[in-house]
Amino acid sequence: MKHTFAFLFSLVLVCTALETNAQEKKQDSIPSKTYRYGVRVGVDLSKIARTFYEDKYKGLELAGDYRLTKRYYIAGELGNEDKTVNDDQLNFTTKGTYFKVGFDYNLYENWLDMENMVYVGARYGVSSFSQTLNSYKVYDRYPYFGFPQDIPSGEKFTGLSAQWIEVLVGVKAKVINNFYVGFSLRVNKLFSNKKPDNFDNLFIPGFNRTYDGTFGAGFNYTVSYLIPIYKKKAVVAVPVKKK
């Protein structure tokens, strides 16, 4: 009988030790977050809206990104624009396509399974376009006989191109299921600009208006959809207090 009680007592001690050890291991690693990785595709609503409310403008831009790590995304945009500009001396129409490629870095620390972004990023942009000089005015510094009249032209310049670097800040927020809305503000700097012989490129598709020759600015407002590919769980180590 003594041996039986001794065996049972030892078995209870072993089981208690095993259970305590299992609880400690369970506390050591707690899966707190699940990160989804995939492709997000969307459209710039601001350019679609401008097509309706801005006279002599048509534009469309598709945007997308792919998550590489917890914070880094490969990102880019592809689009086309058709815009007529009525300047002081010139009236011209610009038509062309562009693409941008770069990265975004998410600065926002999400809670649990949230997937919002407050990010900074950079892009390399390339545009190929044409310019049509609709009309122009002869510059007259002292218009004693009235202001100069528009002179019709219709001359077309093809094979124009531009390249630039842009930096941006933006926000993306998950609204429902896999849908996101977001906006970004961008500052651009030209480093390559093939111009017509007779006038400057005052508007470049994808770059927007040029200011002071080489600088530009713009923004976009996107609605996008995430196509999930796989998931990763983050494990947070929790120190165990020893009694």
Overall mean confidence score, pLDDT: 83
H-E string: HEHEEEEEEEEE
Helices, by number, come to: 2
Please give the alpha-carbon distance between the first and last residues.
35 Å
Helix content: 10-25%
> How big is the Rg?
30 Å
- The parts where pLDDT drops under 50 for at least 5 residues are 1-29
Oligomer state of the chains in this structure? single chain
Structural shape: elongated
Task: Kindly estimate the percentage of residues that lie in beta strands according to DSSP.
Answer: over 45%
The major pleated sheet works out as: 8 strands, antiparallel, barrel
Output the strand order for the largest sheet.
1-2-3-4-5-6-7-10
Number of strands: 10
| Structural class estimated from helices and strands | mainly beta
In brief, what are we looking at here?
This protein is mainly β and 243 residues long. It contains two helices and ten strands. Helix content is 15%, strand content 61%.
What key phrases describe this protein's structure?
243 residues; mainly beta; eight-stranded antiparallel beta barrel; elongated; disordered N terminus
How would you characterize this protein structure?
This protein is mainly beta and 243 residues long. It has helices at residues 2-28, 45-53; strands at 29-44, 57-67, 72-86, 90-106, 117-136, 151-176, 179-194, 203-204, 208-209, 215-237. The strands form two sheets. The protein has an eight-stranded antiparallel barrel with strand order 1-2-3-4-5-6-7-10. The chain has a two-stranded antiparallel ribbon with strand order 8-9. The longest helix has 27 residues, at 2-28. The protein is elongated, with a radius of gyration of 30 Å. Mean pLDDT is 83; it is low at 1-29.
